[in-house]
Amino acid sequence: MEYKFLGKEITFETLQAMSSEDRVQLCAELRDKILNTVSHNGGHLASNLGAVELTVALLSVFDYKTDKIVFDVGHQSYSYKLLTGRFDRFNTLRQRDGISGFPRISESPYDAFDTGHSSTSISAAMGIARARDLEGKKNEVVAIIGDGALTGGLAYEAINDLGHAKTKMIIILNDNEMSIDKNVGGLSKYLSKLRISTGYISAKQTTESFLRKLGFFGRGLIKIILAIKDFFRFLLYRKKPSMFEDLGLNYYGPVDGHNMDDLIKAFEAAKEIRSPVLIHVLTKKGKGYEPAEQNPSDYHGVGPFDLATGVTGTGKGSYTSVFAGAMVDIASHNNKIIAISAAMTLGTGLDRFQMKFPSRFFDCGIAEEHSVTMAGGLAVSGFIPVVAIYSSFLQRAYDEMITDCCFMNSHVIFAIDRSGFVGNDGHTHHGLLDISYLNSMINMTVFSPRDYKDLVWCLTYAVDSIKGPVAIRYPRGTSPFETEGPLYKYLGDCVKPHMVQDYGNDFAIVSTGRICEEADKAVENLKEMGICGKHINVSLIKPIPAKEILELIGDTNNIFSIEEGIISGGFGEALERELQYAGHVGEVIPFGVKNPLVRAMSPKEQLAYCGLDSDTVSRVIKDFLNK
Ligand SMILES: Cc1ncc(C[n+]2csc(CCOP(=O)(O)OP(=O)(O)O)c2C)c(N)n1
User: Fold this and answer.
1) How does pLDDT run across 175-187, given as a tens digit for each residue?
2) Whose CA is closest to 287, among 31, 535, 595?
3) What integer best gives the mean pLDDT of the chain?
4) 267 with 360, same domain?
5) Ligand 1 centre from 301 Cα, in Å?
6) For position 501, which CATH number holds?
7) How far is it between the farthest Cα atoms of the chain?
8) 480 in any annotated domain
9) At residue 197, does pLDDT exceed 90?
10) Pick from 184, 204, 304, 213: nearest CA to 260
11) Beta-bridge partners for 447
12) What is the pLDDT of residue 487?
């Protein structure tokens, strides 16, 4: 497609001056660019296709150079990036040194806030609006939040504050009836009710016809109301019952999120209100690309795909799918097993469990904290809840894990997916902090299995042989080694350390998790250089089986550890302490991540960037040993 607008400088004035036809053309260009880029680089497709008109309308009413626009999660900000000076670099989306898949203040002065995790936009925008008021500035502040993100509790903490403080700001609720999967819960039902009871607010309706339809206005009153020229302004001032109104916001909508004129009028009207306004916009996820419209969940976050057919890459198996299969197996023999997801049913593979055991599956929405405390409630009632949440998203349930599960020593199992590097989503999504935060939790047992079989053993052990809280962390993607035959002989073997290579006593390296592969190769590299050491792998990392590890280490004082996680508070530090308690005199030198701000690139590149690839590991060990 030849672009008439994209590629040229687009300012607020350019957008304001555009005709309706020009804006339609611009939307087509944005969709074309997004489709071509995402089909090549992967990314969040469906949400972005649904937000094209919304973004063009937004930037036709608000000046991105002076107003502040905060996207929730930020996965839907591609059109915004393209319209705010990043067209030329957009081909680098989610690539090393390229454009991030999320707003980044380090990337553009027009990105108001870094995002990636859900339900933060109203809080962040409110802080920005309060700062504006304190400084006596006049710019607008807008938060754009999806109906999925609105299931997160943080959003209500913000609305509670906002409805009371009456800070001037605008919330645009982008309602497409979808989270990643179909949106769930009472709120989603409530929004449907709002949609149906009111119908679209459209510029095509005349004020008079609208008022007559309502029926209860006398002729005199209609005359007065008609004196207010702008229909939208009238509607905005008309108090419409909704929970948002009850909480102190002006509610306005719903507006057709693909009708540019209606969107612009609605945003212009909202601008005039001196107190907080929520504009309810209805959009279609995947809009304009048939495969994504038909299967928005499959195209929410997608790898490279064939644009003509929509065919995405075939999965080669993953830790996630192994976990999903094991859950179904285990639950078919144990009717106390419950599976819990926080709006990530597909992502965690729990759709298989849901199909098989619908009454024992709960999707709580984007509500990690609630999911964990609810699991605590199930556990004290005799069930065995397995809460499957991505590592970085579980960070926000830190307190609930401790207070509502660990302190009571409750048998809650945390299946922590996406531990370690996640690749192109970048630093907000890495699971690099989990060992560190889990290490601080009393009573918590922690496993970091190295491959698929190990994962199944650890999960089985967690269900059958542990009575308190257990965390099992496993990474995104495929296992580097698929062992033939049984990995262990007995269930209890997964809590023991294992000798992987034993070439001599020059050094010993203790690995945990998938990164076992790099340690493996490093030990081979070193052997070729005449440096002969040992490699011990351990899946149980809390409590660390220190005595057994020391026995395997044997006669060397040059001990290293390696983990796919942050060094501070991580496995290596804990290993050193536990080995010392077990009688070892000396230190453990940890290989791990020093700075978790690791940007988008492939997981392999991220390993190398952090010095955790086998070449770097072998070089560092060689230098250390002075050989
Ligand atoms: C705390 C947290 N939990 C889970 C996610 C994963 N996640 C990213 S987008 C999304 C769905 C958001 O739905 P919605 O806000 O309606 O936006 P849409 O994609 O439908 O436009 C989820 C669950 C996240 N980013 N942050």
Assistant:
1) 999 989 888 899 9
2) 31
3) 93
4) no
5) 10
6) 3.40.50.920
7) 98
8) no
9) no
10) 204
11) 472, 540
12) 80
Amino acid at 473: R
The answer on 517 and 436 residing in a single domain is no
Q: Which atom of ligand 1 is nearest to the CA of 176?
A: 20
Asked if 403 and 533 sit in the same domain, the reply is no
Q: Would you say residue 238 has pLDDT above 70? A: no
Tell me the pLDDT tens digit for each residue of 18-30: 999 999 999 999 9
What is the DSSP secondary-structure string of 606-617? Answer: HHHHTT-SHHHH
Residue nearest to atom 17 of ligand 1 (CA): 146
The residue from 259, 278, 294 where one domain ends is 294
Task: Name residue, tokens 């973004």.
Answer: 55
Given 168, 265, 396, 514, the catalytic residue: 396
CATH for 400 = 3.40.50.970
Angle, helices 516-528/614-625, rounded to nearest 10 degrees: 50
In ligand 1, the atom with minimum distance to the C-alpha of 148 is: 16
When divided into structural domains, the chain yields a total of 3
Q: Are residues 356 and 455 in the same domain?
A: yes
The per-residue b/e assignment along 39-71, b for 16 or more CB within 10 angstroms, e otherwise, is bebbbbbbbbbbbbbbbbbbbbbbbbeebbbbb
Q: How confident is the model at residue 218 (pLDDT cuts 50, 70, 90)?
A: low
CA–centroid distance, residue 149 to ligand 1 (Å) = 6
pLDDT reported for residue 299: 94
Check 285, 287, 453, 473 and give the catalytic one: 285
Based on the residue annotation, tell me whether 368 is a catalytic residue of this protein. Answer: yes
Does the pLDDT of residue 483 top 80, yes or no? Answer: no
- Give yes or no: residues 20 and 155 share one domain: yes
Report CA(477)–ligand 1 centroid distance (Å).
20
**Closest C-alpha to ligand 1, atom 15:** 146
Which atom of ligand 1 lies closest to the CA of 118?
26
pLDDT at 246 over 90: yes
Average pLDDT over residues 599-620: 96
Both 190 and 288 in one domain: the answer is yes
**pLDDT for residue 205:** 57
The answer to whether 223 is a known catalytic residue is: no
Nearest ligand 1 atom to alpha carbon 150: 15
Q: Are residues 63 and 121 in the same domain?
A: yes
The band of 39, judged by pLDDT with boundaries at 50, 70 and 90, is: very high
Torsion of CA 226, 227, 232, 234, to 10 degrees: -90
Q: Which of 368, 369, 518, 563 is catalytic?
A: 368
Q: Is the pLDDT of residue 222 over 80?
A: no
In a domain, 307, yes or no: no
For ligand 1, the distance from its centroid to the CA atom of residue 146, given in whole angstroms, is 8
Q: What percent of the chain has pLDDT over 90?
A: 86
Atom of ligand 1 nearest to the CA of 119: 1
Tell me whether 0.90 is exceeded by the ipTM. yes
Q: Would you place residue 316 in the very low, low, confident or very high pLDDT band (cuts 50, 70, 90)? A: confident
332 inside domain? yes
Ligand 1 site, CB within 6 A = 47, 50, 73, 75-76, 117-118, 146-149, 174, 176, 178-180, 285, 343-344, 366, 368, 393
* Alpha carbons 578 and 591: distance in angstroms, whole number: 17
Q: Which of 33-42, 308-317, 396-405, 410-419 has the lowest mean pLDDT?
A: 308-317
Query: pLDDT at position 304, please?
Result: 94
Separation of CA 456 and ligand 1 centre (Å):
28
Check whether the bond before 254 is cis (ω within 30° of 0).
Answer: yes
Q: Could you tell me the two tokens for 87?
A: 């067209």
526: CA distance to ligand 1 center in Å? Answer: 45
Q: Is residue 485 part of a domain?
A: no
Supply the range of the domain harboring residue 56: 12-202+230-294
Our mutation pick for probing the ligand 1 site, out of 47, 80, 118, counting the most ligand atoms within 8 A of Cβ, is 118
Shared domain for 361 and 462, answered yes or no, is: yes
